[in-house]
Amino acid sequence: LQRLQETGLSRDQIDIVVVSHLHYDHFINAEIFPRATIMVPKRDLEYVLSGEYLQAKDPYVPTGLVRYLRDHLVPMEDGQSIVPGLKVTALPGHTPGTMGLYYEEDGILFASDAVKNAWEFCRNEPPTTFFSRAVAMENYARIREIARIIVPGHDRHFRLGKDNSVQYLGQY
Questions:
Q1: Which of 5, 29, 115, 131 could be bridged to 152 by S-S, CB 3.0 to 4.6 A?
Q2: Model's pTM, two decimal places?
Q3: 119: left (phi > 0), else alpha (psi -120 to 50), else beta?
Q4: 141 CB-near residues (< 8 Å, 6+ apart)
């Protein structure tokens, strides 16, 4: 809320909230935006509502909040346009439905926890996976091909140098 205030926005001015996957740290504040459409990955919604997350031994799912907000959640799918130039891109592995947002014109990928941080990305060590490590690794290769700038889930935005070195582009 403080960051919104610093940018001159209020909770009521937010009309779209895009949730990359249904883990607490990426979903817990979705309910504080009373006018917003809350977009969530269709596959992760199925993952939670079916109880599949229990079989995956995924302890980070806010089941109660998902059920509470269920009627306000809008499922999103790969390739869907959020606003002109910004598309949803499937990045499964961490969860079966993890999504990112891709701004194709500038090659910026908001990767969420498909790329948790630069250190793991450079070492080809995907974050903890509750779906498939192999699929997460396939996404790492795809991300290297399409993204000029990567905004990870838990680190500063960066680009990779030719020698696979990290070039941070901002403050944390």
A1: 115
A2: 0.92
A3: alpha
A4: none
Residue type, 170: G
C-alpha 127: how far from chain center = 13
Q: Which of 6, 46, 26 has the alpha carbon at shortest distance from 110?
A: 26
Cα separation, 120 vs 102, in Å, equals: 20
End-to-end Cα spacing for the chain:
18
pLDDT at position 172: 65
pLDDT bin (cut points 50, 70, 90) of residue 127 is confident
Nearest-10 Cα torsion for 102, 75, 154, 35 = 100
Place of tokens 């889930």: 153
